[in-house]
Write a structure and sequence with these properties.
The protein is α+β, with helices and mostly antiparallel strands. The protein has helices at 15-28, 105-118, 147-156, 188-203, 263-287, 303-310, 322-333, 358-367; strands at 31-37, 70-71, 78-82, 88-94, 97-102, 121-126, 129-130, 133-138, 141-145, 207-211, 219-226, 237-244, 247-255, 296-300, 337-341, 370-372. It folds into 3 domains: 15-42 and 66-131, TATA-Binding Protein; 147-203, no CATH class; 214-372, Ribonuclease H-like superfamily/Ribonuclease H (Nucleotidyltransferase, domain 5, 2-Layer Sandwich), CATH 3.30.420. The strands form 3 sheets. Strands 2-3-4-5-1-6 form a 6-stranded antiparallel β-sheet, sandwiched between helices. Strands 7-8-9-10-16 form a 5-stranded antiparallel β-sheet. A 5-stranded mixed β-sheet has the order 13-12-11-14-15. Strand 12 (237-244) and strand 13 (247-255) form a beta hairpin. 32% of the residues are buried.
Length: 377
């Protein structure tokens, strides 16, 4: 007893969930508002079950859902209340910051009133600045940038006056793929790679992620792998990026935990990771009232891998990736996932697996909808 009394945590929303909500908001003309709870750490509840006799005037735990908001299972900081006539109110919590969205303005006002009665709440109006992200909305869409965050980072590192550069990595060098792997004992070459990243950030100071209204209602995931690309341990790098209704919402670049003995193994591992991400996104969309029977569209540039996944016949070349192969085949057979071939030059996830020459890099950043805020329309 008492072993966990000193362990505390704060509710932290997934940034991926926030970007999914932004994509829905721009496509469905939902509002995006922000609240700030003052002294939130003084209003915490005891999560452990401690049995006691409730004094008169106190409410039991049955009252916690009295407002009718359902907590999300894919993201426990997401709360949704659905009402008649397709009305919906959405709440996302990040410690003491709250994002409100939805098309039920009356319910959102009621929620603000209720929270104001319980806590000291500051209504910040439309969402403009959240967790270092600057949000600007216009008739064309929503753009999310990090100008202040980048300026603060450059100032802190003494790189405010550095010369900008077009790409974050030299495509001719493969020694340093992820500089954070060497943070405990960096060499001069590693530090040069870090400075190059900072110079690239200065170049992209005015760029932001653009969310626009589209007719697309699919969930698309691009996955790729750079087989044995790390020359130190010859491990592969997986990369995937996900689009909801035509807008980029999640991405990841990660070195694989074991060596892949073939390109098929590396691609399968990346594909399986991308499918898992797509399934999670579909769960979030369902909790946001956007249930769809359409399969997740997986974009892969390896035709051999697609062929093996669609063919239930056993293949000797994939014995060492049986788990990933069976997982992918199961999702394809159940029509949870649809595998599509995309040429390598159009493989958006390629930017997440290795350094690219400037023309390829700039082409793929455009496909990711990373645009310059200040460029002429």
């Amino acid at each position: 007893m008492g072993i966990d009394y000193q362990e505390t945590f704060a509710p932290v929303a997934k940034l991926n969930t926030i970007r999914i909500l932004v994509s829905l908001a721009v496509n469905q003309d939902l509002c995006l508002q922000q609240l700030d709870i003052k002294n939130v750490f003084l209003n915490g509840d005891l999560e452990e079950e401690v049995y006691m006799e409730i004094p008169p005037g106190f409410e039991g735990s049955m009252a916690k859902n009295q407002l009718g908001y359902k907590q999300g299972q894919a993201d426990h900081t997401l709360f949704v209340k659905k009402s008649h006539a397709r009305k919906m109110a959405i709440l996302i919590v990040y410690v003491d910051d709250i994002i409100l969205s939805g098309n039920d303005m009356e319910e959102l006002q009621n929620l603000k009133k209720y929270l104001s009665e319980e806590f000291e709440v500051k209504d910040l109006g439309n969402l403009k600045y959240f967790l270092g992200m600057e949000v600007a909305r216009s008739r064309k869409g929503i753009i999310v940038s990090q100008i202040k965050y980048i300026l603060d980072l450059l100032k802190e590192t003494g790189m405010l006056g550095c010369k900008p550069i077009d790409t974050p990595m030299d495509s001719q060098k493969k020694l340093v793929s992820v500089v954070s792997q060497f943070m405990h004992s960096p060499t001069e070459e590693h530090m040069e790679a870090v400075y190059r990243i900072l110079r690239y950030l200065k170049m992209t100071l005015g760029k932001g992620l653009f969310f626009r209204k589209t007719e697309n209602r699919d969930t698309e995931v691009y996955s790729d792998a750079d087989w044995a690309g790390n020359i130190i341990d010859r491990r592969s790098t997986s990369g995937y990026c996900s689009f909801v209704w035509g807008n980029l919402v999640t991405w990841r670049s990660k070195k694989q935990s074991v060596e892949a003995r073939s390109s098929a193994k590396a691609e399968y591992r990346a594909l399986a990771q991308g499918i898992c991400e797509g399934i999670w996104i579909k769960r979030v969309l369902s909790e946001l009232g956007q249930t769809s029977s359409s399969p997740i569209l997986m974009m892969c540039d390896n035709q051999a891998v697609i062929s093996i996944a669609k063919n239930p016949v056993h293949h000797d070349r994939t014995k060492h990736v049986e788990i990933d192969r069976h997982f992918i085949t199961e999702k394809v057979t159940s029509e949870t996932v649809k595998l599509n071939y995309v040429p390598t030059k159009h493989q958006t996830a390629d930017i997440l697996t290795k350094a690219l020459p400037r023309p390829n890099f700039e082409d793929l950043t455009c496909k990711l909808r990373l645009y310059d805020i200040y460029s002429p329309a």
